[in-house]
Amino acid sequence: PPMWWAGMANPDLQLMVHAPDVGFTTAELNHPGVQLKETITVANKNYMFLNLDISPEVKAGKFTISFVEGKRTVYQSTYELLEREKGSAQRKGFDNADVIYLLMPDRFANGDPDNDHVRGMLERVNRSNPDGRHGGDLAGVGDKMDYFASLGITALWLNPVLENNMPAYSYHGYAITDFYKVDPRIGTNEIYQSINKKLNERDIKMIMDMVFNHFGTGHWWMNDLPMENWIHQWPEFTRSNYRGGTITDPYASEADKELMLKGWFDTSMADFNQDNPYVATYLIQNSIWWIEYAGLSGIRMDTYPYSYKDFMADWMRRIHQEYPNFSVVGEAWLNVAPQVAYWQDNKRNPDGYRSHLDIVFDFPLKYAIGDAFIEANGWSTGVSRLYESLSLDYLYSDPYNMVVFADNHDADRIFTRLGEDLRKFKMAMAFLMTTRGIPQIYYGTEILMTGLEHEGHGLIREDFPGGWPDDSSDAFTPEGRSPDQNDAWNFLSSLINWRKGKEVIHSGQLKHYIPEDGIYVYFRYNEDESIMVVLNNNDENKTLKTRRFVENLEEYRTGTDVLHRTYFDNLSEIGLPPMSARIIELRR
Ligand code: CA
Fold first, then answer.
1. How many whole angstroms from 444 Cα to the centroid of ligand 1?
2. Contact call for residues 76 and 66 (beta carbons, < 8 A)
């Protein structure tokens, strides 16, 4: 890390030193409270690792590290310990009261056209290439704080912002070439820090997207690897089989598991070997550095099952040692609940594995949302998809602590998936905002952006209209949106803002009833409040007789549908428009 802080919970700090033949020198430092415990040299003499012990009483300040050979000082480096921000260790993570907005920085808003082309960076902006860089940046994110506030979201997840100095496909951010530097086309470390501070002042949390499984082959390490086993090396390029299920499969072959863990994610992404303790320490310190430096509230960890699981558990323990209230969500992209459940902390796994991971994404429910509203209602199809997916929640150690979503940067855009039917879109969003878990929406969902994953990743990551100075319309404003877009935007925004104040949605229980006649009914409730949600997945009007729901309704006499502003003075029968959701606040 380029610098560290005084007063961290863990006194250990390992520095990686890279300079020609530094391995032939002896490191020396003299600073009260900092002890050079151990110097480690490796086969590659251009590297040296220094294990420091930093006393809890150490004062912030700078000190010099000298690298001497005989009597000659070959190198000198100044290292700094900073003062921690007050309350830093107690920073609060994100939780069920939040709604997360995922955006791809290159595709959201270009707040600084001057950084579109940066000398020394391999890829230049080309907006006509769907897979090229388009010039969006952190300044653009900073410009849209009022937009976020009016939409009502309370947490931002940005796809990775660190340097990706790769010749092509560098816009998505997952091929990191410097783990300590924001990509200069996205911004600077200082801009990232200051935008996060401003967001925090407006009660918007920042979730940083991190990648521990791989890094961009354009990283300087690749010209001078610290160790041969820094990465997984193969005689020729070998791709992962992407079968995360092998990790939990009792019958999986060693060959399949090995390919899953050690195969490369892509030709442009070298596969980290986190079994190497120096790699492990590098990554763990890097994540702590960013939390402390940038004032993060959460981390979204990429490709979770692709890294060694014991390392990931160690990482989570270290995060919680420094930040007990911090939140991490892991991308365990697996299709069925038993596979996802394995990765959530406190799950009693047959192999005894405990992940220490706070939160997982609910991929099975995402698939259910994508199917529920576009197929005929049957025993386990149509709206029963939602019911059946949630019925497997007994498998999770904490089903309320999952991120729920309808789409993301790797998936079909939900509006397209639902046949561009605004009614279905509203049902999906109503479900997302009222079921258990922490909702996440993908930028552009609120203005009905379209795209299918198989047609190309660039097409599900299109530029937000109005984010660029020369755009013909500005969908950040009502005037720049079509009537349908305004309808969707207003619907979602009022839903999100309504959800903000609804503790019963954040922390209430969930009870649902077997879907009948294509109608799915569930309740979110606690001792004080109850909310009834009805999804009519039929293309016709229906009348719902409510006798079946007596165990949730007996205390309640009236209700108000917050979506349609309809008052029910009698709950025995509820009229349902075709393909619609009702969210009814019940009154005693
Ligand atoms: Ca720019």
1. 19
2. yes
